[in-house]
Specification:
mainly alpha; Methyl-accepting chemotaxis protein signaling domain protein; 69 residues; single chain; 93% helix
Length: 69
């Protein structure tokens, strides 16, 4: 194998490595977007649950006030 053939092979291997890294970054990016969407959903769910708990506390306190002591 000549020097040119070796260099050509090395360059080919480098391109292959860069392609694999590029694919990995795309996969990480897609997973990151998915995690962000999940985080947003969980944030909205937490806000809804907090609202329900607040409403429950108000109703619970109101009903306790109505009970004769």
């Amino acid at each position: 194998m000549t020097d040119i053939d070796k260099r050509f092979s090395e360059i080919g291997n480098l391109y292959e490595s860069v392609d694999l890294i590029n694919g990995a970054f795309h996969e990480i990016s897609a997973q990151s977007e998915e995690l962000n969407a999940t985080g947003e959903f969980l944030k909205q769910l937490a806000e809804i649950l907090n609202s329900l708990v607040r409403n429950f506390r108000v109703e619970q306190n109101s009903s306790q006030e109505l009970i004769p002591g």
